[in-house]
Amino acid sequence: MCGIVGYLGPSQAFPVLLNELKCLEYRGYDSAGVAVIEEGRLCVLKAAGKLSNLEALLESKRPKASVGIGHTRWATHGIPNDQNAHPHTDKSGTVAVVHNGIIENHEELRDELKSLGYEFASETDTEVIVHLVSHEYAKDQDLLQSILRAVKRLSGIFALGIVSQKHPDRIYAVNHHYSLSVGLGDNENFLASDSMAVRQYTNRVIKLDQSELAEITTTGVRLFTFDGKEVKRSPIALDTSPYVIDKCGYKHFLLKEIHEQPLVLRQTLSKYLRHPNHPIDLNIDHLSTGSGETAYGVHLTEEEIKGLDRISVFACGTAYHASMVGKLLLEELVGIPCEVEIASEIRGRKVLVNESTLAIAVSQSGETADTLAALKEAKSKGAYTLGITNRADSHLAHLTQNLMVTECGIEVSVAATKTYLAQLASFYLLAIYLAEKRGTISKERAKELKVQLNLVPTMIEQILAREEQIRDVSVKYAEAHDVVFIGRGLNFPTALEGALKLKELSYIHASGYAAGELKHGPIAVLDQNVPVITVLVPGAVYEKTLSNAQEARARKAKMICVAVDGDEQATKTFDAVLAIPPVDELFSPMTSVVPLQLLSYFIADYLGKDVDQPRNLAKSVTVE
Ligand code: M6R
Question: Dihedrals φ, ψ of 342, to 5°?
Answer without folding.
Answer: -70, 120
